[in-house]
Structures are given as structure tokens and as C-alpha cells.
Amino acid sequence: MIAKNGIDWTAMGFTVYGECPEYGSTKRKRNNVSHESKRNISFTPAYKLWVRLLQMDRGTTYTLCEEWKQFENFEKWYNENYYEVEADSMEFTYRFFDIDNTILSPDTSCFLPRSINRINKRNYQLIELVKQYECIMPDNVRKHCEKLCEVLTNGKVE
Question: CA–CA separation, 41 vs 25, rounded Å?
């Protein structure tokens, strides 16, 4: 199937369910007056994120759930779960609930304010560094780092 933007998704190995997303209608304000306008769905944030997830799924590291391989399902989840906070931008994440997650699905993904997500990413990098260097760390430093990583991963020391 060839999409409106000229991409042949089936030739690239994707299974296409239903029709490609069509042009949608949206209300836009210009000079404080509402206007009905047509926009290409491929410029929406939901569609851009969906395409990025499809690209991640093509590799061997990540798996996109079957439900999200259909844009309409992903767009519904996106619209129901996206929110905004003052003075911070939002980011999509699939590693907030489980740092080692490789499944991209409604159960494993969420939107977070960028400031919170950055902390989560730094913790992930710290854990990876500790794993990399634990064999050369002194015992007392390694044990402390293991406890820190456990807190960062589980929220508590067991």
C-alpha cells in the first residue's frame, strides 16, 4: 500500500491494516478568529511518534505490540494519555516502570515531564556504568553502588 506521502509501507516489510491515515480537519485560531483548516496527519505529534516507534520495532532490540501497529489504536492511546504541565515539555518513555524494558505498549509506556524523564535516564546510565565497572571497584564502593542501583531500580533496598 502506498501512503499519501509516497511511502510504500508493504515494500518496506510492514503489514498495513486498514487504510493509511487520511487528511484530518482541525480548528485553528488565526488573529483570534477560529478557522476550519485541513492538515496532513503526518505532521501531528502522535503520528511522528508512531513512525518513530515503528522504526524502533524494525530492529532487534525493541518490540512494538500488535495493537500499536495500527495508527488509530496508537492515536487513541496518545490522546487519552498525553497531558501537559506548566514550564516543562513532555516526553514519551517506555523505561519509566522498568529500566530494562524493550516492549513498546500501552502497559509499559507513558508521558513524563522532561525534567522527570531526564532524571530517569541519568539513573539508567548510572546503573549501566556500575555494571560495567563493578569488577574493578573496591568492595565497599561496589556494595554502595549496588544498593544505590537497587533503590533507583526498585525504589527501595530489599
Answer: 9
